[in-house]
Write a structure and sequence with these properties.
about 180 residues; alpha/beta; 2 domains; eight-stranded mixed β-sheet; 3 helices; elongated
Length: about 180
C-alpha cells in the first residue's frame, strides 16, 4: 500500500459542497460593450445603405432610356407613373450625341414597349424627374430593356433664342422688301 496517499487523505479536511456563488452585478463595462455593439451594428447598416449593398436580393430592376437632352436631370431623380414614384434614376452616361439614362424601377411595375419616358419639371423651377406615360400595348419590356419612345427636356433658353432669331429674320426681310419697292 501506498502510505503517502493515505496520509494525505487523512491530513485534508472533508470538502463541503455548499460553497456560495457570488452574485454578479452588471458593471459599467457591460453596458459600454452593449452600447458599442449597437453603435457598430447601426454604422454597418448605414454603410450598406449608402453603398447600395443589397444582401437579400433586390426588389427593383433596371431599364434604359435614350434622350437627346437631359439638362437638369440628376442621379437619384424620381421616376413616376401617374404621379406615383415607381423608381429612380440610377445612372447617366453620355453616348455621343445622346444621353443614356438607366432607370431603377420597382419589380412590381412592368414597363410596356410603347410607354413614353419624358423629362418633366416639378413646379415652375423645381427638380427634374422622369414621367412615364402609359401606352396601349400589352407587350412588356424585359429587365435591362430600352424604352424607345422618349421626350427630352424643353429648354426654354433654346425656345426663346429661336423666337428672337426668327423675329430678327422677319425684321430684316421686311426692311429688304420695303427698300426694293
Amino acid at each position: 500500500m501506498d502510505q503517502s496517499r493515505s496520509n494525505d487523505a487523512a491530513a485534508m479536511p472533508a470538502r463541503t459542497t455548499d460553497i456560495p456563488i457570488p452574485h454578479r452585478k452588471f458593471t459599467v463595462e457591460f453596458f459600454v460593450g452593449i452600447f458599442t455593439s449597437l453603435g457598430l451594428a447601426c454604422a454597418a447598416y448605414l454603410a450598406m445603405g449608402l453603398g447600395e449593398l443589397e444582401l437579400f436580393g433586390s426588389d427593383t430592376y433596371e431599364m434604359q432610356a435614350e434622350f437627346d437632352n437631359i439638362a437638369g436631370l440628376k442621379f437619384g431623380a424620381s421616376v413616376e407613373i401617374a404621379g406615383v414614384a415607381v423608381g429612380e434614376v440610377a445612372h447617366i452616361e453620355l453616348e455621343d450625341p445622346t444621353a443614356l439614362v438607366t432607370l431603377r424601377i420597382r419589380r412590381d411595375i412592368k414597363i410596356r414597349d410603347d410607354d413614353i419616358a419624358a423629362i418633366r419639371t416639378k413646379g415652375i423651377i423645381g427638380d427634374r424627374y422622369i414621367k412615364i406615360s402609359r401606352g396601349s400595348s400589352e407587350v412588356t419590356l424585359p429587365p435591362g430593356g430600352k424604352i424607345i419612345e422618349t421626350e427630352s427636356v424643353v429648354d426654354f433658353e433654346d425656345v426663346i433664342g429661336k423666337i428672337i432669331h426668327s423675329l430678327q429674320k422677319d425684321e430684316e426681310g421686311e426692311e429688304t422688301s420695303t427698300t426694293a419697292e
